[in-house]
Specification:
InterPro entries: GAF-like_dom_sf, HTH_MetabolicPath_Reg, Tscrpt_reg_IclR_C, Tscrpt_reg_IclR_N, WH-like_DNA-bd_sf, WH_DNA-bd_sf. This protein has 261 residues and is α+β, with helices and mostly antiparallel strands. The protein has nine helices and eight strands. It folds into two domains: 5-71, Orthogonal Bundle (Arc Repressor Mutant, subunit A); 79-249, Beta-Lactamase, CATH 3.30.450.40.
Length: 261
Amino acid sequence: MSSVPAAAQVLAILRYLAGQAAPVHAAAISRDVGLPRSTTYHLLDTLARAGFVVHLPEERRYALGVSAFELGSGYSRQAPFQRLARVPLARLVDRTGHNAHLAVPHGREVLYVIEERAPGRAPLVTDVGVRLPAHLTASGQAMLARLPTAQVRALFPDATAFVQRTDAGGPRSLTALRTRLVEVRRRGYATENGEVTLGFSSVATAVTDHADHPVAGVAVTFETGSLDPRQYERLAEEVARTARELTRRMGGHVAEPASSG
């Protein structure tokens, strides 16, 4: 399907403004977005009249307007991502027979937004609304592994960032965390064994958006030692399958797994 040029240009300007730390000149927008100056001014004027952009005349700069904020608020109210994810997560539970959950990044923590419990399985600490340290959870590690090194360093600047929950421990330094994230990238999924709750393990894969940025982690939790290696790998494949489906639904690029044949 072909794109509408004007719509694509408007979206490019809004995305550009959203990524800036402060209001910017129209000339900078024109240059960085790659639009003629006349087109840039025309689109900025249209966006300003609709409230999506505000012009700061004394500074001769532009910033996002209140209508852009209302769009973000509407997204939060409607919770479309949770709606997109609930059925695939329920199917994951049906296929595996284990509890599954969806977490989103929240600083150096993860916030659980969906929990689907399998029949007969015990409730977990990962209830909706719970926050846990990202470096301890499989979901958090799966998402951290998709971030640039500098961003991970900013989230975990010193030893005080590395809290522990159980005797099973977890990464206690940036070096240890980086080593684990290298393994997550190599393997294609993250694992956690008793670092959140003793006696329980998890496997998780990240969900990414159109910019290949991690927006969530899909995980399944099970009793430690209850799976043999083949069952473990099969479970990891099912989690990755669900993460790929959610990535598609979010407009992200999906690299299909290589055929074993």
